[in-house]
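Deliverable D5.2: sample structural annotation.
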Amino acid sequence: MTGTNAVYTHGHHESVLRSHRWRTAENSAAYLLDHLRPGMSLLDVGCGPGTITADLAGRVAPGRVTAAEVSEKALGLARAEAERRGLTGIAFAVADVHALDLPDDTFDVVHAHQVLQHVGDPVLALREMRRVCRPGGIVAVRDSDYTAFTWFPEVPALTEWLDLYRETARANGGEPDAGRRLLSWARRAGFADITATSSTWCFATPEDRAWWGGMWAERVLESDMARQVLASGAATGEDLRRISRGWSDWAAEPDGWLSLLHGELICRA
């Protein structure tokens, strides 16, 4: 989900989608699940390939769910996931989170996963999410905090990757350390009743390392980020190949461990 003054850093290469399709309500929205009830209406902003959306739809059925993305092409990924699962209770809308073409006070829950780090104005986005949420409803957001990512053993190429990613994301108008900023953004957006928490993804088994490390080894060479950094001169092809080898080296380490921190909020409208 991108705003008018931001470029989506990751793009939709298959290596990126492989990562995004791994996401479920359980591993990416656990902080929200206890608040969901059958019959609720829910808006999923920046739904991506729709795996979380579909899981949430199951939690609130027979309530209605609307999946929103910035373009019809991006929305097609979520449509395909709903069709694959045989779900008919999801509506789809092309929308910009900065200016949602939806009525006030419409949804019981407005959810966004890994969206605010990519938009031009996260405070305005939260105000819009609050506007379309009914009074007393929930705005739920979760975003990564890249600087807080940590791994073992120390692999210099991964440090190079992190620096390059943060530089690129900010050049694109985003904020890669969004997780730590969510509370301040929500307060600026006018929320007063806020529960702030954090959670992590951890990759430490041989299978998890092979999947995550292999995904990033490909992603740094083939995704939109690769094209962006080459075009800007922030890195060379050899730089990216070195970083790719670093991800493969980390994945092969029997003691390899990686933890990714996320900030998350439950905001009462």
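Annotation notes: The mean pLDDT is 96. The first strand starts at residue 42 and ends at 45.
The annotation will be released with the project's public dataset once the embargo ends.
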